[in-house]
Design a protein that fits this description.
68% of the residues lie in helices and 14% in strands. By secondary structure, the chain is of the alpha+beta class. It has a 4-stranded antiparallel sheet with strand order 2-5-7-8, with no helix packed on it.
């Protein structure tokens, strides 16, 4: 219950903060705020939290089996006028009725204690799974945030280029009127204008799709208004990818590894459970009977106390076979642990390589973009003075668009590699 109250309070705080940053119904979010908001509102995280609560209740269910058990019953018996003969006398058997209460207490059971340990291990694994679900949602939210920024940046670049082409087209029309240029020059540039206009409309749809993906991760309505308060350049500074490359990787802090450790512990406990099944168990009991309606001859006591001991003697190899199966499963769990840890270590090296390569590629693409921009501006000036053709302008514009697109893609590659490494290092 306390856990649920804390979640509700955190939800109200985060939600109130996010909605108070702008007008009513508007979410103004940084990357970190978006991740925090998603953790509090995403349905997958909620379900993972419910699984933790369920595991806690399951642990108590196992524990309660070893606590005193109290049961009560009431019975009524009517012999329908039957009488019995005894020593020459007919004795009528009247109706009888009893109230019985029984208390049992488990005194010793190795299986019981092993079961409690297994339940607690399962509870810890469920909590780890909840943390893994939060990490997954953070990654998906961050990726959606980046996708929006990249799409918007691409749209803004194309919009600026479209404005430049429209200005060139207008200038060219003036040159045609003056007899300096041909109508073909205007037509070629207008084709570029129409093509770019269609591309921008397509990107607008992609932006909306990216926003819908982010809304899904945040757990908000499809018509919720979201404003991203960070730009790509901001994130390059705030989330310095070079700093991530020097961070250490703690293998045993990885949630997948922790889940595998839990599976090994459970498999080990399963071996102990099968062994415990061959040990004796003992329980005490107390019965109280209140005789509401007594029979003619009543010789049963009102109070009974007793002890019951169960001693397994022979299972004809059944328990041994189950124990051997449990040991095999334990070995499989250990092998899976070794396999996954080796895979994670290789993945770490690959992700570091991917991020470093993406950073280097981004630097080269930025330089290429700057060069293409200077070339386009130079060709545009020459065209205005009549020393370059419309074909030169079109070619320079295509080269600029390609360079700008490569730069945006390289930036997205950096963010993608960075996000994947952040998730592996558990630093999101």
């Amino acid at each position: 219950m306390k856990h649920q109250i804390v979640i509700i309070i955190m939800l109200l705080v985060v939600s109130g903060k996010a909605f108070s940053q702008a007008g009513e119904g508007v979410l103004r979010l940084t990357v970190q705020e978006a991740k925090d908001f998603a953790v509090q509102n995403n349905k997958n995280v909620w379900n993972a939290g419910l699984s933790v609560s369920e595991a806690q209740k399951r642990t108590w269910e196992v524990i309660s089996a070893g606590l005193p058990q109290v049961n009560a019953s009431v019975d009524y018996t009517n012999m329908m006028g039957f009488s019995m003969s005894f020593a020459g006398f007919d004795i009528a058997l009247p109706p009888t009725s009893n109230f019985q209460a029984q208390v049992t207490q488990l005194l010793f059971s190795a299986s019981y204690w092993v079961g409690i340990k297994m339940s607690k291990i399962g509870e810890e694994m469920t909590e780890t799974a909840r943390l893994q679900a939060e990490l997954d949602v953070k990654q998906q939210t961050q990726s959606a945030y980046y996708a929006i920024l990249v799409a918007q940046e691409n749209r803004d670049i194309l919009t600026q280029n479209l404005a430049n082409l429209e200005a060139i087209a207008k200038t060219t029309e003036g040159l045609v009127s003056a007899g300096v240029a041909e109508q073909t020059d205007v037509d070629q540039i207008k084709v570029q204008v129409l093509t770019m206009t269609n591309v921008i409309k397509s990107i607008e749809r992609n932006v909306e799709l990216a926003y819908n993906l982010l809304r899904f991760q945040l757990g908000v309505d499809g018509d919720a208004e979201i404003v991203l308060t960070q730009t790509l350049d901001d994130l390059m500074v705030v989330k310095n990818p070079n700093a991530l490359l020097v961070m250490d990787f703690d293998l045993y802090d990885n949630y997948n590894v922790r889940l595998l450790e839990g599976q090994i512990d459970l498999a080990n406990m399963q071996v102990s459970l099968e062994k415990a099944a061959g040990l004796p168990s003992a329980a005490a009991f107390y019965n109280y009977t209140y005789k509401i309606a007594k029979s003619t001859f009543d010789m049963s006591p009102n109070n009974v106390i007793g002890l019951q001991v169960n001693i397994p003697i022979s299972g004809s190899g059944h328990r041994h076979a189950r124990t051997q199966q449990a040991k095999i499963n334990l070995k499989k769990a250990q092998n899976n642990f070794d396999l996954i840890t080796e895979s994670l270590l290789l993945q770490e090296k690959q992700l570091r390589f991917n991020l470093n390569s993406a950073i280097e590629t981004l630097a080269m693409q930025k330089e290429a973009k700057d060069v293409a921009q200077r070339v386009f501006e130079s060709i545009t000036r020459k065209y205005q003075y009549g020393t370059a053709s419309s074909l030169d302008v079109t070619t320079a514009n295509i080269s600029l668009l390609q360079a700008q697109g490569n730069y945006i893609n390289a930036m997205m590659d950096v963010f993608t590699a960075q996000t994947e490494l952040e998730k592996l290092l558990n630093v999101m």
